[in-house]
Design brief:
The protein is an alpha/beta fold. It has 16 helices and 22 strands. A hairpin with a 2-residue loop joins strand 1 and strand 2. The longest helix has 20 residues. Bound molecules: nicotinamide-adenine-dinucleotide.
Length: 484
């Protein structure tokens, strides 16, 4: 098998296997062929990973931030040097077109390693004068062993978005990739070692939800960062609460994208395409409820369908292809179920809606118009290439409807009215908002959700606060006054 790694897990600087674990077949979504066979972690493997991380963490935290940062930046350089090889692996793991993986996966992971590596030397506490000579100083400390649990849509990126800030702060991480896309996190672990990271500070264990649960509940673990669905988030957050652990929850969404009459129509259509069909729609922050003001509706739908005629669906390894298969047969069937529900509940199918007659898990990009707020496709996260276009008339009306969801991950607005743009964004109940663009996530900017879409933020300087805590030291320069 072409993409078979040396072994399933990477612990303490080396590949480790335990064939007693449940098999995990890695399937290339473009063909359905098995490209690697791994094994879920047994309790012994989980134990090995946590013991190694616990042992390595103290010495790692005792290094200077600059030394830690240098290793992360070196890892970023190695990832960039190997971008093509890593992208080919990512394409086989996820089915995403090479055209995308070359610019959005290892490159985004490298950005995180570089950014947090650069911050390494500046992670400090502060000095707080109190008058009369007394003062407080704070010490920024690592949390200890952190667990990262990933989803399957951006495996390399997620492994690095969690690993880089954790390691920069002096933590060790045990990372469990999604069982659907387990291959690329192993490469991240290998590259960190090659960059000079001490053994054990970034271990990777494979497995299904039970392995994730075993990691989350272990008393040695201080923090859990999950990227996944809301139902999984609920379970993981509750389990972490038992041990009063820190959490970051990056969960699902059903984000609104509002297009006003005065918007630049080409840009709005581009935003809707990026926000619904990139990675075959398997992006958490997608703007899947596209509210289009009545005056521009027909023109918007016409341009959208014209532009969708240019989509190039096919072999994801062909760099001209810009739309690949779904990650798995199961996910494809979930999405097809939603398409049927959309039709049954009265939405008007204006584009796509079918599986392609070829090997692999290919769906057409799909657009429904005349969608109403009560329809299932307008309420539930589909996580596939299905855009719902909804009509609206006034700003007040659309804001109420846009926010009428339990999710709050992202939201976007297209308009040429400057004051309206900022007013609308101020009214959005969402963690990540866009004006006249959609779905960009640079490492310098905080990323995360409100409401049921999550807790905490990834990326930016804010992520540091989620992977470290402050120790407060009160220093008295005076005699101690006691009442008796
Ligand atoms: P999922 O919730 O099924 O699984 C996520 C991860 O959690 C997997 O690694 C899985 O093995 C693990 N897991 C499952 N049960 C667990 C348990 N009880 N304890 C510990 N770990 C457990 O999600 P998925 O299908 O892999 O990914 C799709 C979802 O992820 C979508 O809802 C999407 O919106 C979300 N997502 C969010 C972001 C974000 O940044 N907000 C990014 C990507 C994906």
């Amino acid at each position: 098998m072409k993409f078979q790694p040396e072994a399933s897990h990477f612990i303490d600087g080396a590949y480790v296997e335990d064939t007693a674990g449940t098999p995990i077949d890695v399937i290339y979504p473009a063909t359905g062929e098995v490209i690697a066979r791994l094994h879920s972690a047994t309790p012994q493997i989980v134990e090995q990973a946590l013991t190694s991380a616990k042992r390595a963490q103290k010495a790692w935290a005792a290094m200077t931030g600059t030394e830690r940062g240098r290793i992360l930046r070196r890892a970023a350089d190695i990832m960039r040097d190997r971008n093509r090889e890593l992208s080919i692996l990512e394409t086989h793991d996820t089915g995403k077109p090479l055209q995308e993986t070359l610019v959005a996966d290892a490159t985004s992971g490298a950005d995180a390693l570089e950014y947090f590596g650069g911050l390494g030397g500046s992670l400090t506490g502060e000095h707080i004068p109190l008058g009369g000579g007394d003062f407080v100083y704070t010490i920024r400390e690592a949390l200890g062993v952190c667990v990262g649990i990933g989803a399957w849509n951006y495996p390399t990126q997620i492994a690095c978005w969690k690993g880089a800030p954790a390691l920069a702060c002096g933590n060790a991480m045990v990372f469990k990739p999604s069982e659907t896309t387990p291959l690329s996190a192993l490469k991240v672990a290998e590259i960190l070692i090659e960059a000079g990271a001490p053994k054990g500070i970034y271990n990777v264990v494979q497995g299904y939800g039970d392995v994730g649960a075993a990691l989350v509940t272990d008393p040695r673990v201080a923090k859990v960062s999950l990227t996944g669905s809301v139902p999984t988030g609920r379970k993981v957050y509750a389990a972490a609460a038992e041990g009063m652990k820190h959490v970051t929850m990056e969960l699902g969404g059903k984000s609104p994208l509002i297009v006003f009459d005065d918007a630049d129509i080409e840009n709005a259509v581009s935003g809707a395409i990026l926000g619904n069909f990139y990675s075959s729609g398997q992006v958490c922050s997608n703007g899947t409820r596209v509210f289009v003001q009545k005056g521009i509706k027909e023109a918007f739908l016409t341009r959208l369908t014209e532009r969708l005629a240019n989509v190039k669906i096919g072999d994801p390894m062909d760099e001209a292809v810009n739309f690949g298969p779904m990650v798995s047969e199961a996910q494809m069937n979930i999405v097809l179920g939603y398409v049927e529900k959309g039709k049954a509940e009265g939405a008007r199918l204006v584009h796509g809606g079918a599986r392609l007659d070829r090997a692999g898990f290919y769906l057409q990009p799909t657009v429904f118009a005349d969608v109403t707020d009560d329809m299932t496709i307008a309420r539930e996260e589909i996580f596939g290439p299905v855009m719902s276009v909804l009509d609206f008339e006034t700003e007040d009306e659309v804001m109420t409807r846009a926010n009428a969801t339990e999710f709050g991950l992202a939201a976007g607005v297209f308009t040429n009215d400057l004051t309206r743009a900022h007013r609308v964004v101020a009214g959005f109940e969402a963690g990540t908002c866009y004006i006249n663009t959609y779905n960009l996530a640079p490492v310098e900017a905080p990323f995360g959700g409100s409401k049921m879409s999550g807790v905490g933020r990834e990326n930016s300087k804010l992520a540091i606060n989620h992977f470290s805590e402050m120790k407060t030291v009160y220093v008295s320069m005076n005699d101690v006054e006691a009442p008796y």
